[in-house]
Task: inverse folding
């Protein structure tokens, strides 16, 4: 199993540009989520999904969109990037919400100029 | 909602010494407390967890203790080694209730030779 994979590993954007951060898992997990990690603020939940076709907002959802068309994939979209979105982004998956170990991907470091 | 506080934010120890990281949580109903280790450039990885029906759990050099009355739990690392240097996150959750993990802000542990 590859576990949770993320692409790209690094990305630099200009203010106003859009992009999609890719996330995939091969463990047949129902629950997937996106976090951002900023210095001194820990891991903050952006969006999450409890299964294909179901998504919901986390703690800091503004400026981000998600969709879940398959069990395996959970992309995160930045519609109009802002410098405040400079961060490291982690995708995570879990068998189901509230049960079992949560696995994290290797992260995407995003810089918005 | 749940709130998790973690201390200290940075910790420096000599190789062979013990390290202790402490977390407090706000929701007395929380019953699952995992600890994650994040090495430089990687995603967080579960290293140990404890449930509220257990007061202490050990796995080789690491242990976690839980005090439900005081609503705090701690990570203990004995005989620290350079490879223990990383960022450690605690988290808390009420499992099975549709709740999500709430993370602490992280502790940067440095083990000096």
Result:
């Amino acid at each position: 199993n590859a576990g949770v994979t993320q692409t790209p590993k690094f990305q630099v954007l200009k203010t106003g540009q859009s992009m999609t951060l890719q996330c995939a898992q091969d463990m047949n997990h129902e629950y997937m989520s996106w976090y951002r990690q900023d210095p001194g603020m820990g891991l903050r939940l952006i969006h999450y999904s409890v299964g294909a076709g179901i998504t919901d907002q986390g703690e800091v959802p503004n400026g981000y969109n998600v969709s879940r068309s398959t069990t395996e994939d959970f992309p995160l979209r930045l519609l109009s990037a802002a410098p405040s979105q400079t961060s490291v982004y982690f995708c995570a998956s879990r068998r189901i919400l509230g049960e079992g170990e949560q696995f994290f991907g290797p992260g995407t470091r995003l810089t918005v100029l | 909602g749940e709130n998790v506080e973690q201390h200290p934010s940075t910790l420096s120890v000599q190789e062979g010494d013990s390290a202790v990281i402490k977390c407090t949580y706000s929701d007395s109903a929380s019953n699952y407390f995992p600890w994650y280790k994040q090495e430089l450039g990687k995603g967080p990885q579960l290293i140990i967890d404890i449930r509220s029906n257990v007061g202490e759990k050990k796995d080789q050099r690491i242990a976690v203790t839980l005090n439900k009355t005081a609503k705090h739990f701690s990570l203990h690392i004995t005989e620290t080694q350079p490879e223990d240097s990383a960022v450690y996150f605690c988290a808390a959750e009420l499992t099975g209730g549709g709740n999500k993990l709430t993370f602490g802000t992280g502790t940067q542990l440095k083990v000096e030779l």
Q: What stands out?
A: Residues 96 and 111 of chain A are 32 Å apart (CA to CA).
